[in-house]
Specification:
Structural class: alpha/beta
Number of strands: 7
Order of helices and strands: HEHEHEEHEHHHHEHHE
Largest sheet: 7 strands, mixed
CATH architecture: 3-Layer(aba) Sandwich
């Protein structure tokens, strides 16, 4: 199955939450956006475009291939004059050469059929000395077991086939490093980071979020009956009363355009 990013029924999938302070505190250590131009590649509903603007970016350009996602992003970021959105492919954005000081792509590269083409486009878009930041999960990240905070791990304990889907579509950390180097980036490094995804008032709120499949493309691999089975499985393993703090582990790659 998989998510259809062009379907109106999925328009709200990537809105409805804010980037957490643990993400913003890490990001400013990696790249100072104040007064700079940030391209948010695969921007979805604009959650992180808004976060970059709140961190002081002078200009944020969100790119997504889905008009439906961009419609949601425009609504989500209404009132932010420094944010603009444009339809484009990850390998062909339509932006001018050397547009960006920072190129950011969160939860994008595991969806791409051609990572080298995307990185070549990122290199073209960055000014000399500019920074690329990729944030995604590797197979190592998704294999972590479920816990009261790492709720995603329960998806794979309940439905092991979902782990096979994840491992097939997610590149390893070293592969991404090699691809960045092949694209011309230097000073390449990667690190692991935990990001608070959401804080739920209690189990009922968590269940509603799971049943909506919001922000979780992997749950689109399940039928409605299977999704209900997963929710029941998870509610047996989380606290009866809130708050429930959900965290995800990510790998973040950083590189520079010489």
């Amino acid at each position: 199955m998989g998510i259809d990013f062009h379907a109106q029924t999925n328009k709200a999938s990537y809105v409805g939450r804010e980037a957490h302070a643990d993400w913003t505190s890490l990001i400013v250590e990696l790249a100072d956006p104040r007064g700079k131009t940030v391209v948010d590649l695969g921007c979805g509903g604009g959650i992180y475009a808004k976060a970059w603007a709140d961190l002081g970016a002078g200009r944020v350009i969100g790119i997504d291939f889905s008009p439906v996602m961009l419609e949601a992003a425009e609504e989500n970021c209404r009132g932010y004059r420094q944010i603009a959105f444009q339809q484009g492919d990850a390998a062909a954005t339509g932006l001018e050469d050397q547009t960006a000081d920072i190129l950011f792509a969160r939860a994008l590269i595991h969806h791409l059929p051609d990572l080298p083409a995307c990185l070549a486009e990122a290199f073209r878009l960055l000014k000399p000395g500019g920074t690329i930041l990729l944030q995604d999960r590797t197979p190592e990240d998704v294999r972590l077991p479920g816990s009261a905070e790492h709720l995603r791990g329960y998806f794979f304990a309940c439905f092991p086939r979902l782990l096979q889907v994840e491992e097939a579509r997610r590149p390893g950390a070293e592969k991404v490093v090699r691809e960045l180097a092949a694209a011309g980036f230097t000073a390449i490094a990667h690190l692991h980071a935990w990001e608070t995804r959401k804080v739920y008032a209690g189990a009922d709120e968590l269940a509603a979020d799971l049943l909506s499949r919001k922000g979780r493309s992997i749950l689109h691999e399940l039928t409605q009956d299977e999704l209900q089975q997963l929710v029941s499985y998870m509610l047996e393993r989380v606290p009866d009363q809130g708050p429930i703090v959900e965290k995800d582990r990510w790998t973040i790659w950083v590189g520079r355009r010489p």
